[in-house]
Write a structure and sequence with these properties.
mainly alpha; globular; 2 domains
Length: about 450
């Protein structure tokens, strides 16, 4: 009964904290990635539901092959997350809060299984500390409610490792296969799985991973056969040759780990935890898990330097290491008074981590450009449903998403776009292109925040 209460508490705490600004429009931090993901789910409802035909809103191709993408295909990760969201949209209506709730639910599930994994290996004290830190970490709170597949893939990775450690290999192969489909980066969880198979003398069981790799291989083959809908991804590895440079270490260690994720206090406990992570073969699993995440960050060097959400896979193992560090500090002395002082110091470091972490993350929830929402609502009210809209926003699809129309998130080459079917132009920036169009075309509506222009029958 006590264990069930702990699990319920961890889930509700994780879930409840991520309800903060759950009704935010798709215009907060990293809205460009969230908008594409949300658009695929919305188009499953508006157009057609086909897992092999996910469509975003933008006609601008994402591939680096110079291929056009007239069907707006969005072939990246398997659209499992988008499909779950679409089901909710179909039942309750299209609302970004529902998409966020899917992420929040999986974040809570991940926290529960992190506790089960850690408590089973190291006892309830470390398990509860790891689970609580994972639940309340500000960076993890924000990225546990975004409209992106990352919260699901991280949670499924935690569950996969839990199942493998407990020798539930059939369930493991299913969950791990799903994790890989949601985000191929889940493959790095194989390193701690392999370590555990070796130290547990069950190396033959590692063959279950081959079964789990098959769905991913088939999905990647399908993407290869539809290159116009695929993504340019080579830059993620080492564009600008940043790997192992001073900038690489500065961004990932000082800026992300120390400042943003573990926020000074937690970073101290994280380092202490690393020093206590290879004391025996059981703790060695966590050390190898950390190495696997470091390997992922090194291989995808440019991706990790560019995007702070790429470090989300570090949170589960990092939370365990923070718990190691916390209890190593508390147990450094057997005497009552020094032990009490160590406890207060460890708690102070956790509080410092949460306070500094919130200071860094609080701005992520802000809507810095509310004018795109206002303009998007106006477009949705004024224009026909089949209108194709040019919504320039530096190729960021967040503005286009707000219009609830398909189109282009960038200006320029207007004659080409009009020949491809563009019917309207909406802008929140009154630049030269916008002013020129106002003079040549019919202005449907203009305010201090936006202008909507009809591109049909211009002078």
């Amino acid at each position: 009964m006590k264990k069930i209460l702990i699990l319920v508490f961890i889930f509700l705490l994780t879930f409840g904290l991520r309800l903060y600004k759950i009704n935010n429009p798709v215009a907060d931090w990293h809205s460009w990635r969230q908008a594409d993901t949300a658009a695929v789910a919305r188009n499953f409802v508006k157009d057609r539901f086909n897992l092999f035909y996910p469509q975003a809103d933008s006609f601008v191709p994402n591939n680096d092959l110079g291929l056009t993408n007239p069907d707006r295909l969005f072939l990246n990760e398997f659209p499992f997350y988008n499909a779950l969201v679409a089901v909710l949209y179909k039942i309750f209506g299209i609302n970004p809060a529902l998409a966020r709730l899917v992420s929040v639910s999986f974040a809570g599930l991940g926290a529960v299984f992190l506790y089960l994994l850690t408590a089973g290996l190291f006892g309830p004290a470390i398990g509860l500390t790891a689970g609580l830190y994972y639940a309340v970490n500000p960076y993890n709170i924000y990225y546990g409610r975004v409209i992106m597949p990352d919260p699901i893939f991280v949670s499924l990775s935690i569950i996969s490792l839990y199942l493998f450690v407990n020798f539930k290999f059939i369930l493991f192969s299913f969950v791990f296969a799903l994790a890989l489909l949601v985000k191929p980066y889940a493959i790095f969880i194989l390193l701690p799985c392999f370590y555990w198979a070796v130290v547990s003398h069950k190396l033959k069981t590692f063959c279950w991973t081959l079964v789990a790799l098959l769905p991913l291989a088939l999905w990647r083959l399908y993407i290869f056969l539809v290159p116009e809908g695929s993504f340019s991804s080579r830059w993620l590895y080492n564009e600008t040759n940043i790997r192992f440079t001073g900038a690489f270490f500065r961004w990932l260690i000082f800026d992300r780990l120390n400042r943003l994720i573990f926020a000074t206090g937690g970073f101290v406990l994280f380092i202490v935890g690393i020093l206590n992570s290879y004391l025996n073969k059981t703790r060695g699993l966590i050390f190898v898990w950390l190495l696997s995440v470091m390997l992922y960050m090194t291989i995808f060097a440019m991706g990790n330097v560019t995007h702070d959400y790429y470090q989300l896979p570090l949170l589960p193992v990092g939370s365990i290491l923070v718990a190691f560090g916390f209890w190593a500090m508390v147990n450094a002395s057997k005497k009552l008074f020094p032990r009490l002082m160590n406890l207060l110091l460890a708690l102070a470091l956790v509080i410092l981590s949460l306070a500094f972490g919130w200071y860094e993350v609080r701005g992520y929830f802000n809507i810095n450009h509310p004018e795109i929402i206002t303009a998007g609502q106006a477009v949705d009210q004024l224009l026909p449903k089949d209108a194709l809209v040019i919504a320039p926003y530096n190729r960021d699809v967040a503005f286009l998403y707000q219009t609830n129309r398909h189109g282009w998130p960038e200006g320029g080459n207007l004659d080409t776009k009009i020949s491809q079917g563009a019917t309207h132009y909406v802008s929140v920036v009154f630049d030269k292109e916008t002013v020129d169009l106002e003079q040549k075309c019919r202005v449907l509506e203009k305010t201090q925040q936006y202008v909507i222009i009809d591109l049909r029958n211009c002078l």
